[in-house]
Amino acid sequence: MLNRDSLFAAIEAQIAACVETGGRFAVLMLRARGLRQIALRFGYAQGEQASEVAHELIVQSLRPADRVFRAGDDSYAVVLPDMLSRNHVLLASARLSQAFEQPLHGMESPWQLRAVMGVALYPEHGQDADLLCRRAAMALDEAQRRRESCQIYQPHDTQVEIFYEELRDAIEANRLQVYFQPVRELQAGRLVAVESLARWTSPRHGVVSPASFVPFSEQSDLISALTRWSINATLRHAAPLCATGGLDFAINLSPQAFSRPGMVEQFRGALDIWGVAPTSVIAEVTETALAADLESSVQVLRRLRDMGVRIAIDDFGTGYASISYLRRFPATELKIDQSLVGSMQDDPHTTRLVSAIINMAHHLDLATIAEGIENQATEDLLAGMGCDFGQGYHLGMPEAAADFVQRFQALSPG
């Protein structure tokens, strides 16, 4: 675990030296993805051995003057003196990335890890140890979100530092909004479902993208509160439509919430409170969750599936899922990522790939939903491939759930 005193002392020593010389240095946070899984799969002794091997690998990849500290089960903090430019930092990160390109040896079984890094520079990103470490950690979070190997802290990330209190208060006071985006059956064109989307307008920052506040909530302790809010807020709007029938409601679930106790019970309780049948609900989880923690994801989602809730793998085609994952995962449908759908018109190879995904899903008795349909030509192409459902701006824009409910009830017979 992190010896904060030793790490901070090393950083403060560098600060003192740079004050005298006018020099620069960097703090780098590295996460060895896959390291935690060694301990879970093979035992803690093997996991500790792997952590030591990874630590030595990092040390050997750097200069003698660089200092390496354990910062968690799968994380390390590195102090890099004399970083005269960003290019020097990028060279150091490239060496570390290359070091993890080969399976980790020195154990009973070789294991492939992947290094993800975030960097903060002195003096421009902070002038004390605590701030430099926090901003390096923020950059690491951003690298993970973007699926990049290394990210240098960006000054606009200071917005994240002030999100916590405001986002927590917004969730607790129910100041977030639910939006519904239509999902249509492609063969008949009829409305069959909506996907629930969280929206937040901050008094201080204006409209905040879900791409900012959702990952931030996952990286903090707010994800449980946000998940609980999303489930209840969605079902509250779904309840008056259930009497009319015919619509399903998709709710995005973060795999980070799966490790929190009582999530399934909270879901069941919310269904009971709002009188919504489990069979009318689809729990969506991203494909990358399969690679992040397959065992806990499968366990939680099987319990939801046993309740009658359907399970969709979101953003399929861009992550790490494999056929072996699909065999174990209790999915009922695949959502084909919009990056693939949007490229179909210009790339025949992508078109064939999407067609293959649809055929594979149907062979596995999974329904298919195409995301990001932006025009009639794409809709017609997907319908011709036999894709079951679709969503995107061409088929229906997201709108405030209250407005959607009012409009849907007005159009419904009786």
Automatic annotation (TrEMBL):
GO terms for molecular function: cyclic-guanylate-specific phosphodiesterase activity. SMART domains: EAL, GGDEF. InterPro entries: Cyclic-di-GMP_PDE-like, EAL_dom, EAL_sf, GGDEF_dom, Nucleotide_cyclase, Rev_trsase/Diguanyl_cyclase. PROSITE patterns: EAL (PS50883), GGDEF (PS50887). Residues 160-412 form the EAL domain. It comes from the Bacteria. Pfam families: EAL (PF00563), GGDEF (PF00990). CDD domains: EAL (cd01948), GGDEF (cd01949). Residues 23-155 form the GGDEF domain. This is Diguanylate cyclase/phosphodiesterase. The lineage of its organism: Bacteria, Pseudomonadati, Pseudomonadota, Gammaproteobacteria, Lysobacterales.
